[in-house]
Amino acid sequence: MLLSQLFTKTSKDAVADAKSVNAELLTRAGYISKTMAGVYSFLPLGLKVLRKVEQVVREEMDAIGGQEIVMSALAPREYWEKTGRWDKKVFEPLFHVPAAGENEYALNPTHEEVVVPLVQRFIHSYRDLPFGCYQIQTKFRNELRAKSGILRGREFLMKDLYSFHPDAACLDRYYETVQGAYDKIFERLGLADRTYLTYASGGSFSPYSHEYQVLLPQGEDTIFVSVEAEKQGKRIAVNHEIYDAKETTCPVTGGKEFREERASEAANIFKLGTKFSDPFKLVYTDEKGKVHPILMGCYGIGISRLMGIIAEAFADKDGLVWPPDIAPARVLIVPLAKDTNEEPFTVAQDLYRSLQKKGVACLLDDRIDASVGSRLNDADLLGIPTRVVVSLKSLKAGGVEVKDRSSGNVEVCSTTKVLG
Amino acid sequence: MLLSQLFTKTSKDAVADAKSVNAELLTRAGYISKTMAGVYSFLPLGLKVLRKVEQVVREEMDAIGGQEIVMSALAPREYWEKTGRWDKKVFEPLFHVPAAGENEYALNPTHEEVVVPLVQRFIHSYRDLPFGCYQIQTKFRNELRAKSGILRGREFLMKDLYSFHPDAACLDRYYETVQGAYDKIFERLGLADRTYLTYASGGSFSPYSHEYQVLLPQGEDTIFVSVEAEKQGKRIAVNHEIYDAKETTCPVTGGKEFREERASEAANIFKLGTKFSDPFKLVYTDEKGKVHPILMGCYGIGISRLMGIIAEAFADKDGLVWPPDIAPARVLIVPLAKDTNEEPFTVAQDLYRSLQKKGVACLLDDRIDASVGSRLNDADLLGIPTRVVVSLKSLKAGGVEVKDRSSGNVEVCSTTKVLG
Q1: Mean pLDDT throughout B383-402?
Q2: Residues in B touching A50 (Cβ below 8 Å)
Q3: What is the CA B32 to chain-centroid distance, rounded?
Q4: Do B35 and A114 touch (CB under 8 A)?
Q5: Residue A252: how many CA atoms within 13 Å on its side-chain side?
Q6: Are residues B255 and B361 in the same domain?
Q7: Contact call for residues B298 and B160 (beta carbons, < 8 A)
Q8: Which residue of B has its CA nearest to A367?
Q9: Fewer CB in 10 Å around end: N or C, chain A?
Q10: Which candidate in A31, A43, A111, A161 is best for mutational testing of the B interface (most B CBs within 10 A)?
């Protein structure tokens, strides 16, 4: 992609009303555009990042046999009444949408009310269980305030997996399998060493639910990290909501020492038991013809939120720093030339084409009318992992100047080595 | 994918309240599930079809330089008030969503009101023009009635491209480029020979807009096909809304003979001129520093609707018939065996694995407890292009029985040939 063709532009100015690090950086870099508080559009480079996060999550869900579907954003009021969650006092963030013919629809913030009647059409026997289906889909929450950029939105992209089981032992096994998949996701996104499996309140069925909290200086959550678990090489924490300085012990190690941290919740997993099966009478028949309720688990990951978390987690004073697997491109080539006929430009163009031919996603900054300083600042702000500057000076020194965005290391090497 | 693992099931029964061919077939085959009238979820096999249609459209948009983005589904009421379309009398199908803090949001059925303020942040000079950006995104319409399955929904997936130009000549050229891309899309989807470029009313800026209407016996639109244009090998029609039996002539050939047909609108393209630029004051500065309004075009394609159109266009009495490039899998293998140790099953399994290794998407019907009749009926209903039956009989005859779903042709050939 040529930067001269990209309709978005970077901006040096602080974003007028951005109160969050991710909103500020992603907006200035032209990755996202605010429609209103908590509601963002994803621009060409931002969409590439979002799709890459999505693909990592999809691959790990497929690897554990998750069947991908896409459920509707709208649902009839009756489904939500069935579980009691249409009531604003029970579930405040649900949008109630007035519709033609005196109808009212829910604009789904989560999909238990849709997935249960959906699977009910197909699942009747013990032979149909267990299974899990997931979607990557836009969700809506009627938040009074939304000022954390894409960390907490009124509209956001989620992966939600729902699993269905004949008994608690089966649910427990599946729950552990999903934990393994989630560990892989955070590993692949480069977040593993700052992500804590955090115990939170469990609702009606289970003593705990689990959150995956990523340490962030501006995170909206407070967690208490188990110091003893850390000494054993485990990252375990307790959410402040269930933390009591006098009584709480680490659920894994039994340790009593905790460290308070700011964090952002990237994922959560729940054992739902029969909470949603019961109101819809979602049941199965066992080998002997006896009817039982189906047990459920649900497993969410915020896809757009993860993009915001990654942005905040790795950014430095100069801008964004994308992990290579998530970056919108691996390489940004910046020729320092005043004319497209000059050698630095033609060398850069050749390198760009050769990298593309090799399947390496790259950007060519062909905006030769812009100042060198602003182009190098843009390169830092955009956060592409490898910056390649081609100048008369670098060519004299035997090649191109390669800078690693993350470490800041610079070396001059031949174009052959860059292509290597 | 193993059919025994798929949580969806086919159904022989007519769908209780399906009033449309696509809803009936896609529901019975387990491709979609109705949440409520006009609102569907896409199930594992259905999602694969939807994504393939989407990818064809994306590739052709990228090929003409379209920059992919994803805009928000929600928008502030003020944006829609600016163009006058918040008013129900002006634009009835807009959902008005009450929100916390006495706000109201629009749930976008189209995105002019979002894309114009979005590009306004970046586009200021003649040097920034022309360009086009598009999205593939879920849209919402507050329809009183919705009974055409995924042909006309309250919630649906659209591709919408918006283009921006300094003058009418530039818009005209771009408009023709998009027409070329659309022709390629309908060609790739196998619909070209039944798709008519249909002249419809043009609104304030242009004498006509253009629709791509696909002939369908149950289509919800009536068009008048120019007989003279057909004789010249062109597929041109006039929408009934602007057709007058006494006065209308074919806009391309001048011919006066027309044939009435039922059709479904798969796409539409408009020259918007300054209709949306004016209220937002979207302008650019020319070479001499003079300020002008930016001209716009918009170009829609219904992605989920196209899936429904393709389903209806090719189906026969036995079920769905997917064009190979859109099918959820190329090959469905059906071993006729009572046990997984029997030769037909092991041969089928080997073939399945070999095809997968070659990158050919295939399904294995490993439901050996089901009757042969129901499995062969399912194969027809699912509409996978190639059905491979492996039986003791076929093995004795030298291989496997290969049936082409579209032509119905059957031949026995070796597994080596299937792997071709």
Answers
A1: 96
A2: 70
A3: 15
A4: yes
A5: 20
A6: no
A7: yes
A8: B127
A9: C
A10: A43
Q: Give the residues across from B161 on adjacent strands.
A: B134, B299
Q: Mean of the per-residue pLDDT values for chain A?
A: 95
The answer as to whether B96 is a domain residue is: no
Asked whether B403 and B410 are in contact (CB, 8 A), the reply is yes
Phi-psi category of B202—alpha, beta or left, where left has phi over 0 and alpha has psi -120 to 50? Answer: alpha
User: pLDDT value at position A314?
Assistant: 97
Q: Pick from B199, B234, B239: which is nearest to B220 by CA?
A: B239
Whether B255 is covered by a domain: the verdict is: yes
Provide the shortest C-alpha distance from residue A362 to chain B (in Å): 16
**pLDDT tens digits for range B75-107:** 999 999 999 999 999 999 999 999 998 899 999
CATH label of the domain that carries residue B394: 3.40.50.800
pLDDT in tens, A160-185: 999 999 999 999 999 999 999 999 99
Size of interface A-B (CB pairs under 8 A): 137
Where a domain ends, among A289, A314, A339?
A314
Report the candidate in B288, B305, B140, B137 with the shortest Cα–Cα distance to residue B212. Answer: B305
Q: Do B107 and A97 touch (CB under 8 A)?
A: yes
Single-letter residue type at B373: G
Q: Given A41, A101, A118, which is nearest B71 (Cβ)?
A: A41
Looking at the structure, do residues B381 and B299 belong to the same domain, yes or no? no
Residues A333, A337, A340: CA angle, nearest 5 degrees? 90
Whole-model pTM above 0.90?
yes
Question: What's the Cα-to-Cα distance from B53 to each of A48, B185, B305, B306, rounded to whole Å?
Answer: 20, 9, 10, 8
Instruction: Residue A47: list chain B partners with CB under 8 A.
Output: 68-70
**Best residue in B11, B36, B157 for a mutation probing chain A (most A CBs within 10 Å):** B36
| Domains of chain B: total | 2
Q: Which of A314, A342, A377 is the last residue of a domain?
A: A314
Residue A206 tokens, joined: 């289970």
B53 and B196 part of one domain: yes
Q: Which domain covers residue A358, as residue numbers?
A: 331-419
**Which candidate, B224, B180, B172, places its Cα nearest to that of B198?**
B224
> Both A277 and A372 in a single domain?
no
Do both A262 and A357 map to the same domain? no
CATH number at residue A271: 3.30.930.10
Residue at A83 is within a domain: no
A24 vs A15: CA distance, rounded Å: 6
- Give the minimum alpha-carbon distance from A244 to chain B in angstroms, rounded to a whole number: 33
My answer on whether B129 and B188 are in the same domain is yes
Same domain, A62 and A191: yes
Best of A26, A45, A70 to mutate (most B CBs within 10 Å, chain B): A70
Q: Which amino acid is at A213?
A: Q
What distance in Å separates the CA atoms of residue A136 and residue A134, rounded to the nearest whole number? Answer: 7
B59 within a domain of the structure (yes/no): yes
Residue B270 amino acid letter? F
For B291, residues 6+ apart whose C-beta sits below 8 A from its C-beta are: B283, B284, B285
Span A49-78, pLDDT tens digits:
999 999 999 999 999 999 999 999 999 999
Q: Do A96 and B95 touch (CB under 8 A)?
A: no
* CA–CA distance, A82 with A298 (Å, rounded to integer): 19
Cα distance between residue A361 and residue A52, in whole Å: 12
Residue pair B353/B321 in contact (Cβ under 8 Å)? The answer is: no
Instruction: Give contacts of A71 with chain B, Cβ < 8 Å.
Output: 35, 41
- In angstroms, what separates the C-alpha of A250 from chain B's closest C-alpha? 38
Pairing of strands A208-215, A195-201: antiparallel
Residues A268 and A357 in one domain: no
Are the C-beta atoms of residues B314 and B330 closer than 8 Å to each other?
no
Measured CA to CA, the distance from residue B190 to residue A130 in angstroms comes to 39
B10-55 pLDDT, tens digit per residue, is: 998 777 666 789 999 999 999 999 999 999 999 999 999 999 999 9
- What residues of A are in contact with residue B143 (Cβ under 8 Å)? 100
